[in-house]
Amino acid sequence: MSSDSTLPLIWAAAVLNFLIMFIRLAVRKWKRSGLDTGDLMTIGLIVLNFAHASTIHIVITGPKDGMTEAYRRVHNISVEEAHTRELKSKLLLLGRMEILTYLWGQKVLLFVFYRGLIRRLRWERAILRTFWSAFALSYLAVALATFLECRPLSRFWIVFELGHENLCGRGVVQLYVQGGFNIATDIMLIALPFHVLFQAQRSFVQKLQLGILFLLGIFCILTTVLRLQQNSAHKLSQANRTTWANAELIASTFVASAPTMYVALHPRNRHMPEAARQIHVQRSFVVSSDRSKEGSDDMELGTEVEIWTPEGR
Predict the structure, then answer these.
(1) Which portions of the chain are predicted below pLDDT 50?
(2) What is the pLDDT of residue 166?
(3) In the 3-class helix/strand/coil scheme, how is the chain assigned residue by residue?
């Protein structure tokens, strides 16, 4: 895929991501909801979305990828071209960190929404620690793979060395590390809501609708798998890598914003009172007086847990 055909795709993806996140903010404003953590994160991700598109635009419009020995023999590399190639490689490194931050930011955005599923449950703290640790450690692992694949780091922007093309800057290791952790964390987010959904006092049809909503994360996994397959087949094509990265960004944006938009736009939400709109799980046990004195986290019979109550709604 040529750079000429990639540029429109870059900006089309950026605009589509923006529209999805803008709609998310708009429907919450329509509900007359104040800004919460998720909204502030969405605004930050919108800024990062366009920053990444600008970065990759410069990378794609720069000199062609790599510089083979044959090219070096027939071309006299000017100082200006050398500086341009160095700048392109540095911006490419920045672009990969922008993609990483954007993808993990969307995961955190979805998790902030899902926190309403586990609030006040006795295993809430364990779930929170597990997910926050998984997000932080996986982000750190991918960042290290990004910066350590070329050692020393300056090799990343050396496009020709020792008589052969410098390949460490292609980021093959980084691609697989990011893809692996991306799939693993997506699976965690898909699995999180189903334990509560199975206990929800809702009809089969309603559970099926919500189950489909929760399973949207499968699209992220499929996109990541396709990206790994395509990039493996075209390791030397930055345009190909950029195209599939944009597909991954779109999928993650939609999956992270869909639950919020569903809650606001579902017909039941427009015609039912606030209390009747919420999905509840009734805990089927009674807390004994002894366990209450011990500070048990169990809730009394009849206590309800709101599924659709993201933090700060």
Answers:
(1) 162-163, 267, 269-313
(2) 58
(3) CCHHHHHHHHHHHHHHHHHHHHHHHHHHHHCCCCCCHHHHHHHHHHHHHHHHHHHHHHHHHCCCCCCCHHHHHHCCCCHHHHHHHHHHHHHHHHHHHHHHHHHHHHHHHHHHHHHHHHCCCCCHHHHHHHHHHHHHHHHHHHHHHHHHCCCCHHHHHCCEECCEECCHHHCHHHHHHHHHHHHHHHHHHHHCCHHHHHHECCCHHHHHHHHHHHCCHHHHHHHHHHHHHHHHHCCCCHHHHHHHHHHHHHHHHHHHHHHHHHHHHCHHHHHCCHHHHCCEEECCCCCCHHHHHCCCCCCCCCCEEECCCCCCC
